[in-house]
User: What shape does this take?
Amino acid sequence: VPSLISILKQINDKRLSRTYDYHRCPAPFIQIRILQILGLLGAADRQASENMYAVLSDILHMMGEGSPTSIYNAVHYECVRTVSNVKSMHLCLGMMLVLAMICSTSMVHR
Assistant: This one.
């Protein structure tokens, strides 16, 4: 799990080459696949779920601030699915609060 989280942080910090961008979204297909894996791993392990909190929050913020394209929505959706699959209820409630704030601000800006 720490390796996958590290990869997501690198993608989120835009440390990958621009060749991995798709419609200005950094490596979306890699992000989606890693989020799917983290969702599976987090469903069975509370410690792994708690380690995911920061990177999932960062991804939700980044996707909420991005352009409203299908690929941003796909990564955003997969991040929400991952949050709903994680073991820790405290984590899930915290992430849902963050998601609600992002959605409310993005609705105001549209």
